[in-house]
Amino acid sequence: MSEKTSASPQSGLVVVALCFLTIVFDGYDLIVYGSVVPSLLAEPGWGMGPAAVGAIGSYALAGMLVGALGAGVVTDIVGRRRIMLIGITWFSVMMLACSLAPGPGALGLLRFLAGLGLGGVIPSAIALTVEYAPRGRRQFHNALMFAGYSVGGVGAAVLALLLLADHGWRPLLAIGAAPLLVVLPLAWRFLPESVGYLLTKGRDDEARALAERYGVDLPALREERTAVADGAGPRALFRRDSVAATLLFGAAGFCGLLLVYGLNTWLPQIMRQAGYPLGSALTFLLVLNVGAIVGALAASLLADRFGPKPVTVTAFLLATACLIVLSQRVGTGLLFVAVAVAGLGSVGTQILVNGYVAAHYPAPIRATALGWVLGVGRAGAIVGPLFGGWVLASGIGFQWNFYGFAVPALAGALLIGLVPVARRSAAIPVGTAADPTDGTHATTTKEETTA
User: Whole-prediction pTM value?
Assistant: First the structure.
């Protein structure tokens, strides 16, 4: 029996699931650092203050920037599957090494090295998810895959509640090596190569077999690859008719990732400074990431219905309002609601920004546009932990952390609100509004007439 008749097109969900599982551990490895900040500040003999801890938190993000840029080049040579396998192995080993760090300098270096692998897997996970997700449901499945980041954050918060007080920070970092046993064997067995990569390498027979097995629209993928190959390069982002949107999207990406990594790094310590015990402070990190999961999925469905622009602006404004609420002494119930909505306003807004970019730009420059936004955004991710550490070290009060993070949230809303209407009538695939890469196209299209 042929592969075409023996396998359902829905089997592509296996690929989405593996990418989701990879991003779960990606999120855990990044967010667990915020969970262990109180323990690092109290580590005997290390003598670190908030500024030093914030700097180490940014080293992993700097590594992610380098890893993502490097992976973007290497993946064209070795393929997305190999990049995923190498990246999973690399960041897992480095997280184990982090748990054995003898001092702050070694921990900072190892966090940077772990970031290389963490950043390297993200572009391939995005591309494979877009390519293998069921046709017409890419927006939801992309949001679902990225929700893995916050699922990892929930895991980090729960394990910190159970382990940190009695066992310290080292076991929590060592758990970051779990993908060697959990994810890597599954990915080695079940993760296919990108059909698009095989086409670019002239391996048409292999591409055709995978397309039949997983229900990938091979003719549409060939057309997309041709359009991208024939389209303009990065200079097209800065033409007279597109430069305003390019700059606004880049700045919004900076604000979004500053919120994501700033809050996930410093929220427990900010709440401890506000007078909450360690357990309660870690619970706030748990609620932040649960809110991000639920909020991102709900917002992606709303973006399908009402368009990405109004939903993204609203999410940024909700984040602004909730950060102001968190700076005040309010009841516990309202406090938890504000933290949960702030999760939507941080992780959720970044998913929405990516989706808006994918809907705004035509296919030949869509991937280039998203590379620009995520690259500028990664700079915001580096600034976030540094900024939080500086405010805490200044001693001006925990409220100013929330005021400080409210500023980029409000700026993000204004920036997205100013994005001009796309002055074109281009066929945009249904279901790709949140796709963070150019990916493959659905066969059903709609005319994009507004931003």
Answer: 0.73
